[in-house]
Specification:
Aminopeptidase; binds glyoxylic acid; alpha+beta; binds manganese (II) ion; five-stranded antiparallel β-sheet; single chain; Alpha-Beta Plaits
Length: 420
């Protein structure tokens, strides 16, 4: 007898996202869940309990990624499902968490149906996707592919001065080791990630689900300016080497450069600024700011990067200020696998769910994985396009629709005989 399909549970998805939101350093002021922090560990325990309850084999890799494996009847290559549970400071409850909860939900429904995958299915929660705890984006996914050395992991520090490596080791001690540490292309058939869209496109076009075609690349920098500290009252304007004035002009220059950029999907953001010593009556001798620039086309991103840095350089030269540029993160734009995209579209059609094909301006762990492994991403709408803020919200019914596509795609991939 054919087993009846089990629909993902909207209530369970909603309850689990809400439960995870309680693991938060800043209740009432958005969600702040730094990688490996106390609320992060508590959220991980909550997730591991659920996944162990489903009979999955769990553990934490040497890079701090959580893995839960549903063994297949045969062996490799497996299907990877994943996202992240770290948050930006004062962020929302849906970024990353939605994908993790949807992956668990998909597995839970398939298990309830009595489905037996031929290939193993691994749920992976990548550490430090946001880059706001250790200053470098996509660390867990890059490290899982061997793209970041242990030495680099030891050099990345959080606000308390603790290194990524030491925190990952402690995190592993709490939860134990998983079946594998590294994601190897030969052992992985595909990666699937469901994520909130973080923009307005799905809502505006009235779609519940999007299929991602390509993911933007992002370059992040810390740019430091050195001038000369001096007295705010006694120093005539023409004798000043004012680092803050340089910073202000640089930010205006960045806005001008992006408006001239030829690609509409190019963006630039200065999200953090500081100066030293920082007092009303001192001309600041030092100032620094973050710069995040993105585009979905590699050539366009390279042009943007060149134009931005040259503009900032010219402004500092004109003001006789010195400049130090440190690139803190880098990810390249990537087109997602056509085979997986077609499969997602086919599954959507079979389930009568209209989907919109669209690029992602936000960066995801999937962008790193897609460099080595066929990867697909499913988007669900973000209310009013808000994200990385406390107002972030996605309707659970939309997540359920995206999760149905995820679940049915897992079924197809895990029975797929092409790769033995
Ligand atoms: C990750 O959320 C990003 O900054 O795109
Ligand atoms: Mn995310
Ligand atoms: Mn994010």
């Amino acid at each position: 007898m054919k087993q009846k399909k089990v629909r993902p549970s909207k209530t369970r998805i909603e309850e689990r996202i809400s439960e995870i939101s309680t693991f938060n350093l800043t209740p009432g002021q958005g969600t702040t869940r730094p990688t490996f922090s106390e609320p992060y560990i508590a959220a991980s325990k909550y997730l591991f309990d659920i996944m162990e309850g489903l009979g999955l084999e769990t553990g934490v890799t040497c890079h701090g990624n959580m893995i839960a494996t549903w063994e297949g009847e045969n062996n490799q290559p497996g299907i990877l499902l994943g996202s992240h549970i770290d948050s930006v400071p004062h962020g929302g409850n849906y970024d990353g968490v939605t994908g993790v909860i949807a992956a668990i939900e998909a597995v839970q429904c398939l298990k309830k149906e009595g489905f037996k995958p031929l290939k193993p299915v691994h749920i992976i929660v990548f550490a430090e996707e946001e880059g706001t705890t250790f200053g470098h984006m996509l660390v867990g996914s890059k490290a899982s592919l061997g793209q970041i050395t242990q030495k680099k992991l030891a050099s990345l520090k959080n606000k308390e001065g603790k290194s990524y490596l030491e925190c990952a080791e402690k995190f592993q001690k709490i939860f134990g080791k998983p079946l594998f540490d590294y994601i190897r292309p030969e052992m992985t058939r595909a990666m699937l990630e469901l994520h909130v869209e973080q923009s307005v496109v799905l809502e505006e076009k009235n779609f519940q689900v999007g299929i991602v075609t390509e993911i933007a690349g992002a370059q992040e920098y810390i740019i430091s300016i050195k001038g000369l500290a001096n007295h705010a009252g006694a120093t005539p304007m023409k004798f000043r080497l004012d680092a803050v004035a340089g910073l202000g002009e640089a930010i205006v220059g960045i806005e001008k450069t992006i408006t001239k950029h030829k690609s509409p999907l190019g963006v630039a953001t200065v999200g953090s600024v500081s100066c030293f010593p920082g007092a009303a009556n001192i001309i600041a001798g030092e100032a620094s700011f973050s710069l995040d620039i993105r585009d979905v086309k590699k050539e366009n991103l390279e042009i943007l990067e060149r134009n931005m840095l040259s503009k900032i350089g010219k402004i500092m030269d004109k003001r006789n200020l010195s400049l130090e540029i440190n690139r803190t993160s880098s990810s390249i734009p990537i087109v997602l696998d056509e085979g997986i995209r077609s499969l997602l579209e086919e599954v959507a059609e079979d389930n009568n769910i209209p989907v919109l094909k669209m690029p992602s301006g936000a960066v995801h762990d999937s962008a790193e994985i897609a460099r080595f492994i066929p990867t697909g991403m499913i988007f669900v709408p973000s209310k009013n396009g808000r994200s990385h803020c406390s107002e972030e919200y996605t309707n659970a019914e939309d997540i359920t629709q995206g999760c149905t596509i995820l679940k049915e795609t897992i079924r197809k991939l895990s029975l797929d005989q092409i790769f033995k």
